[in-house]
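Fig. S4 source data, part A: sequence.
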Amino acid sequence: MTEKVNRTINLKTITLLLIAIWLGLAFFAVLSQISNWLTSHHFEMSFFSHLEFFTIRVWLPWVILTPIALWLALQFPIKPKAWLKALLLHAFFLLCLSIAAGLLISFHYHFFEDMSPSMMDYKPWQHAGHFLFGDNLFLFNTIIYTILVTNINIKYFSQLAQQEALIASQLNNQLIESQLQTLKMQINPHFLFNTLNVISVLVMKAETEQANEMINKLSSFFRSTLDDKTQQWLPLKKELEHVEQYLAIEQVRFGERIQIVKNYDPEVLSIPVPAMILQPLIENAMQHGLEEKEGKGQLTINCHLENFQLIISIIDDGAGCNFYDENFKEGIGISNIKSRLQQLYDNKHQFTLSSNEQGGVTATLKLPMNIGE
């Protein structure tokens, strides 16, 4: 799924973080004074000099660096699947920002502050090492940078969790809608009348065993439609078993008029696919293709692997459809399929409907294998 989270920062956020950083430094200065008071026999109050040091040497450089650090944290979030790469990048960014802060302090110290005679011969940039490691400014920079990156990533993961919860809710609603739409199509007067009519004819011919079998198939089909209604993913084998129950009923109704061909690669049967994704395509092929065709017809279902993708094609040689006709409109079933596939696979899938040269329609699904496991 596409990660679309809010990747912006505002002045209020920067201001609050800078205030929090300064208060943290002031609190550290207080703790430092308390520690000196408890451990030194000749304690002298130096809180304000400590606070001045932290404000000038640490806080003021981060007034400039905080927006940069926040921008880097937004551009390179720490993701579960690529956390090591992100951590290494941020370690590099921390080093670069610390060197920049050290040089900034060093040049200010060299040109605008009183230096001891022993420091006069140093170049401006040579003071950076003393400030960063002698005065432990690199440690403070590390703490501050970690706080900034953590703040952004907490918001990032919070927004991502909310987004995933919303998508899961939408997918569940779409699955329920797909099931209801399928159930509606199954119990519509046309389908139900034709199926019951076949059962009635079998009873009149005293073909009791076939009539009972037909009733059992119809019962199993309705039950299967509402089974696993909370699951977004099912093994392809189970999804195919469901559509085959539908086809078994249609096969009895149409008899020799329709031939059903199944080409399943055994290796693909365990691959997870979205639940109820094939039923609308099969129904479209039967009701809008083969049922409207005069004479015999054929429905072919192919499932195989190609370039690490699951390829499912549903081919009929029925009445066909002109997809370029300006009056052509997608049904609810097709629209639902497209929406679910986009949310489940992002742009890593393909779904196409095309007209066959000799009549009929081919529906093709190309799905990645490693999603839904």
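Fig. S4 source data, part B ends here. Residues 228-368 form a domain with the Heat Shock Protein 90 fold (CATH 3.30.565.10).
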